[in-house]
Design brief:
Elements (H helix, E strand, L loop, with lengths): L6 H4 L1 E2 L4 E2 L4 H11 L3 E6 L2 E7 H10 L3 H5 L3 H4 L6 E3 L4 H11 L3 E6 L2 E7 H12 L7
Parallel strand pairs: 2-3, 5-6
Antiparallel strand pairs: 1-7, 3-4, 6-7
Amino acid sequence: MLNQVMIGDVMTASPYSIDIKDKLVAAQQLMSDKAIRHLPVLEGKNAVSVLTDRDINLALAANKNVQAAEELMVEDVCALNLYQVDKTVKLSDVVSYMADKAIGSVLITNQGELDGIFTATDACKYLAMCLNGEFSKE
């Protein structure tokens, strides 16, 4: 039964997101306010990246000029190598790929539009639920 679980069954639905043209400080503030570490980056309606707290910290540490750091844009910092899958993909395929490639998050789409996010933290939560007999797809 667990091999029938799709990523859409365990993703975090309707994640917060930010536009690629927004300022980095806006992303940092949103992530701080919402206590999240991964933020989908959109260009229009298309997901193009995931910005992490680590990306932000590295960018700010590398930029000692406070005024210049405040002018950084999301597009200046986010990597455009994105792992995304449709919500109908098997969870086992997604977590295997994440583990193999050391990826911390994956964006989940539904008919090409952002529908959710699945992170390593979500995987740990799901694993704990399974081990405790608390998860049921039914």
